[in-house]
Amino acid sequence: MLGRYLFITALNLFLASTITYLSVPLVDKIGKNFGFVDIPNERKLKKESLTRIGGLAMILGFISVILINYLWFSETLNEEISIFPVLLLCTIFVFIIGLIDDKNNISPWPRLSFQFIISSIIWSQGVSIDCLNFGFLFNNFGYVEIPYFLSFLFTIFWITAVINAVNWIDGLDGLATGISIICSFTFLIKSFIAFEPGMILLSSAILGSCLGFLKYNFFPSEIFMGDCGSYFLGFNLAVLSIIGSTTNLEVINNSIPSKIFNVPMSLLFLFIPIADMTVVIFSRILNGKSPFLPDNRHLHHRLLLIGCNQKSTVIIIYSFAILASILGFVFI
C-alpha cells in the first residue's frame, strides 16, 4: 500500500510540475497580450515589467492532477476525496478574485469579503476548525470544543489569513513559491506518517505545481505568480492545514468531536507567512497606519536593509521555514 502511494505521489509531482512548466511560456504571452503586466514602482525591486499571472500555469497543473486523482480514486477513496469537487470550485473562484486584483487592484474590503464568502463555502462542506488542542501550553488543559458559530468565524478567519499571508510574503523572486514548496512538502510527509490518502493527493498536487513554476520564478524571475497565484496557493495551503493538521480522536462522549485541530503544528508548518503578516500588521497599527497599507516592513525588506542581496535573503527565509517545519513535527 505504501509503495502504491509513493508511486502515485511521484506521478502527481511529475504531471503537475510538467503541466505547469510547459504552460508558463503560453501564460506569459497571454499576460502580455491582455495587459497583465507588473509595472515597477518605488516599492518594487524589479525594474523591468514582467507578466504577473503566472498563477494561471500553476492552477492548470494543480486542477489537472486533482481531476485525474478524483476520477481515478472516486470509488476507492470516496470519503477521503469527497471534498475535491467543491475544493476545485472554490479554488477557481479565489483564483478569479486574484486575477481581477492583478488587473484592477481591488480595494481591501471587497477583496476580503469575497475571500470570506469562499471560506464560508468550504467551511459548509466540513473543512472546519471545531476543536482546538491547547495541551502543548498546559498539561492539564487538553481539548477545547468550539461552538458552531465560533467554528465558522475561526475557520473563515484562518483561511482568509493564510490566503493573505502567502500573498504578502510574495515580495521577492521565488519567495512565495519556495515557501509553498516547503509547506506542501511538510504536509506531504505528515500525510504519509499518518497515512491520509486524500491529503497525500492534495499536498502532492500543490507541491508539483510549485516545483514546475519555481524554475521561471526563482531569481532572476522571468514571470510573477501574481495575486491569482498567491491566492490560489494560500487558499489550498489553508485547506490543507485544516484537514492535514487535524488528529483523529476517539469519541468519548458527545461533547468531543472526532477531529482536533493541531494548533502548534499548523502554526509552525506555516510559520513564515503567518509570522510575517502578524508582525507587519501590528507594526503598522502601532505606527498609526492602516494594516492594509503597503510598506517595507516585511521580513524580506528588513533582511535587504541589513545588506543581504535578493538571492541570499530568499535562501535565509527558506532556511527559517524549513527549521520551523521540522519543529512542527514535534507536535504530531
Report what the structure shows.
The protein is mostly helical and 332 residues long. The chain has one domain. It has twelve helices and six strands. The chain has helices at residues 2-33, 55-73, 84-104, 108-124, 148-169, 175-194, 197-217, 226-244, 263-269, 271-286, 299-305, 310-328; strands at 37-38, 50-51, 131-133, 143-145, 246-248, 259-261. Strands 1-2 form a two-stranded antiparallel sheet. A two-stranded antiparallel sheet has the order 3-4. Helix 3 (84-104) runs antiparallel to helix 8 (226-244) and helix 6 runs parallel beside helix 12 (310-328). The relative contact order is 0.15. The model has no long low-confidence stretch (mean pLDDT 91).
User: How much helix is in the residues?
Assistant: 55-70%
Biggest sheet features = 2 strands, antiparallel
Low-pLDDT runs of 5+ residues are: none
Element order, helices and strands?
HEEHHHEEHHHHEEHHHH
Radius of gyration: 19 Å
Binned strand content:
under 5%
Q: What is the terminal-to-terminal distance? A: 22 Å
Determine the number of helices (DSSP H or I, runs of at least 4 residues): 12
Q: Give the strand line-up of the largest sheet.
A: 1-2
Number of domains: 1
Shape: globular
Number of strands: 6
| Average pLDDT taken over every residue | 91
The secondary-structure class comes to mainly alpha
Blueprint of the fold:
Layout: H1 2-33, E1 37-38, E2 50-51, H2 55-73, H3 84-104, H4 108-124, E3 131-133, E4 143-145, H5 148-169, H6 175-194, H7 197-217, H8 226-244, E5 246-248, E6 259-261, H9 263-269, H10 271-286, H11 299-305, H12 310-328
Helix pairs in contact: 1-2, 1-7, 2-3, 2-7, 2-8, 3-4, 3-8, 4-5, 5-8, 5-10, 6-7, 6-8, 6-12, 7-8, 9-12, 11-12
